[in-house]
Amino acid sequence: MDRIIAARVYNRICELGSLSAAARALGMSRPMVSRYLDAMESWAGARLIHRSSRRLTITPAGEEILRTTRQLASIADIIEGHATADEPVGTLRVACAHFTAVHIIGPRIPPLLERYPALRIELDISSQPVSLVGERIDLAIRITNYPEPGAIARRLGDCTSVICAAPGYLARRGVPQTPADLANHNCLCYSGFAGQSWRFTAPGGGALSVGVNGNFSTGISALLGDAALAGCGIAMIPLQEALPGLNSGALVTVLPEYSPQRLGIYGLYQSRERQPAALRLLLDDLQASLLPDRG
């Protein structure tokens, strides 16, 4: 059996914790995945995984071999990349939040896959920070002004937000005239922010922050937009989420003279050395697509 493929299959088994899950991810039959695992154990001369009816457990020898097979797969990808320098190959694992997946990364994936058929992209959608090493993530996209430490952060663009509400809500509760007036309103909050405060740039250019509270928070900005459309309260959401409602009149901008703090869009990755061609390609493509939004 091809030992490079066996190493890659072994990596996926350890990553997903299941032969069946690895088979689905790799597009193989489960018996074939099992045969590749047997081949790896024969090659290593040791039991790598304890199998039981409930779960798989990596043995100490398996942990040691896993470090080697990851390096082997990475080197194989590099060699394959040199063989087809203009056509990135292999799997690129990307982690991001729901908004980023829908509005930033999602639109870029189809043209990339059409142009580079040997490229495979796995998108892991989560609002929580990820361990690039522990979760074997090649690239994490985060919208923040404080990227997580321990990784290289490349700024790809900026995210502009807007304060908005349904006309019906404002007719019932009144229209805020200053950020301080938000204390008297039901503010729909993004749960990913530390504490519930909204930061603005005032008309004169100064920065200010106001505490807000409300009866709904979520880590998915589209749901905040839906709640605002339903007249539940005032939301601060990315402009892309609000545009359909703003254009139709179902939403109106609140405090238009105060600009919500602009956030950076960052690509986080582990190392500049031996950077896969696919990673460089995606970073460059995302930055190019976001450049018009810079200001």
Task: Write structural notes for this entry.
Helices cover 39% and strands 24% of the residues. The chain has helices at 3-16, 19-26, 30-44, 60-83, 98-105, 109-115, 167-173, 221-229, 239-248, 277-290, and strands spanning 49-51, 56-58, 90-96, 119-125, 139-144, 152-159, 161-165, 187-190, 197-201, 207-211, 217-218, 234-238, 252-253, 259-260, 263-269. Strands 4-3-5-15-6 form a five-stranded mixed sheet. A five-stranded mixed sheet has the order 11-8-12-7-13. The chain has a three-stranded antiparallel sheet with strand order 10-9-14, with no helix packed on it. A hairpin with a 4-residue loop joins strand 1 (49-51) and strand 2 (56-58). The longest helix has 24 residues, at 60-83.
Keywords:
10 helices; 5-stranded mixed β-sheet; Arc Repressor Mutant, subunit A; D-Maltodextrin-Binding Protein, domain 2; alpha/beta; 39% helix; 3 domains; elongated; 295 residues
